[in-house]
């Protein structure tokens, strides 16, 4: 049975229900709580979410789980180069066609969905994307003279990468929230394996769905949040980002106020404050610029806090300096825990961890942005991997060795 709607006493019970659902969902998705939180934020704001990341990172499963946790009609489709519009929007009604009317059969299709998930979104044809634009922007589906209002709450789209085509980039701008999804980190791998194995036989404890009216009531409450106190600060942040070359459309910065208002509501407040400005980071649709934004806005976002959206707050305010410090700590510890003998079985495992750390550093920084301390540690990692191994005691690498710089 779906959980009941918000009682007249206020939104606190609904927020507690939502938080409990995110907690339970995050137990099934290792290191993916921020992803779950942002999808939920998109639902409350009635805005769309774009997930960018390689295949196999749990994007589809996370969206399915969030959609399944709400008593709502869902639609899911993997787009390809040859996907026909009828596969998403419905084939023509032959009976209506005999009567001279052009009407699609939309039952069970995207125009009838409350929540939609479209994988490989940028592979859609021009005809598909044009129809989607109308649905995303106006919640209306049109085909010729036929027109209908859609019940869509939020569309979550996924892709391996952002498109280079300017026309597709303009389409991507319709997604207010953008999250870059990376594979689970090395430290979370044991938990990922345990959780995956535990759930491989099925979910022994299914989550009862929340009635979609709870989401609707939270959305209406968010629209009543007082945004006055943060207006000037928000405008200052937008100016600051634009000055360093971050592209932000007027449409996006206006709509982003809904995210800030929803964050304030989930914090239990009816007035937005500096604690609620962190969603601005997710407006940026470039991975490097998004990381730079969290660093650039350190002073403005230092008070960020949300008891429900904990991980998405942390990710939004976790800039390159913090990431470099974390990688430095991890790399230093890895070098210090080198097995004494190259013949030790653990030595081979240690070398694999070294390679993984090198990949993580190169994924986070290029040769121009790599901090000096991390550059030295990276050189030490590479020196070990390039040195022929011998059956004897292993000398610890000396940070500062003269070896090749990162590519």
UniProtKB/TrEMBL annotation:
Region of interest (Disordered), ranges: 387-407
SMART domains given in the database record: AAA
Gene3D superfamilies found in the cross-reference section: P-loop containing nucleotide triphosphate hydrolases (3.40.50.300)
Transmembrane segments: none
Domain spans labelled AAA+ ATPase: 45-185
Superkingdom, taxonomy of origin: Bacteria
Pfam families per UniProt: bpMoxR
Protein name, entry field: AAA family ATPase
Originating species: Sphingomonas alpina
């Amino acid at each position: 049975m779906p959980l009941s709607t918000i009682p007249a006493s206020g939104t606190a019970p609904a927020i507690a229900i939502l938080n409990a659902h995110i907690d339970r969902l995050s137990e099934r998705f290792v290191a993916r709580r921020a992803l779950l939180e942002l999808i939920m934020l998109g639902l409350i704001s009635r805005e769309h979410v774009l997930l960018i990341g390689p295949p196999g990172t749990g994007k589809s499963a996370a969206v399915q789980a969030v959609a399944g946790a709400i008593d709502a009609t869902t639609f899911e489709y993997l787009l390809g180069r040859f996907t026909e519009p009828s596969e998403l929007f419905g084939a023509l009604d032959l009976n209506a066609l005999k009567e001279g009317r052009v009407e699609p059969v939309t039952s069970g299709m995207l125009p009838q969905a409350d929540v939609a998930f479209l994988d490989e979104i940028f592979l859609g044809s021009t005809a598909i994307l044009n129809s989607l634009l109308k649905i995303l922007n106006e919640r209306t589906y049109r085909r010729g003279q036929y027109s209908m209002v859609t019940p869509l709450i939020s569309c979550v789209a996924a892709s391996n990468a952002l498109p280079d085509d300017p026309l597709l980039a303009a389409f991507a701008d319709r997604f207010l929230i953008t999250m870059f999804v990376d594979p689970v980190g090395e430290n979370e791998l044991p938990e990922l394996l345990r959780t995956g194995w535990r759930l491989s036989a099925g979910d022994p404890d299914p989550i009862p769905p929340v009635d979609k009216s709870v989401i609707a009531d939270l959305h209406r409450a968010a629209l009543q949040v007082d945004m006055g106190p943060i207006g000037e600060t928000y405008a200052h942040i937008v100016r600051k980002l634009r000055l360093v070359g971050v592209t932000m459309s007027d449409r996006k910065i206006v709509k982003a106020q809904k995210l800030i208002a929803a964050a304030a509501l989930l914090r239990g407040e009816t007035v937005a404050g500096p604690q609620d400005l962190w969603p601005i980071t997710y407006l940026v649709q470039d991975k490097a610029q998004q990381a730079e934004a969290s660093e650039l806005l350190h002073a403005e976002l230092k008070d960020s806090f949300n008891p429900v959206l904990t991980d998405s707050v942390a990710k939004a305010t976790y800039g390159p300096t913090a990431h470099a410090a974390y990688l430095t700590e991890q790399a230093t510890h890895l070098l210090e825990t080198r097995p004494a003998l190259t013949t030790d079985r653990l030595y081979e495992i240690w070398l694999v961890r070294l390679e993984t750390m090198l990949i993580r550093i190169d994924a986070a920084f290029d040769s121009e942005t790599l901090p000096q301390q991390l550059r030295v540690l990276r050189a030490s990692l590479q020196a070990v991997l390039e040195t022929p191994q011998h059956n004897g005691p292993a000398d610890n690498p000396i940070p500062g060795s003269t070896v090749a710089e990162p590519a």
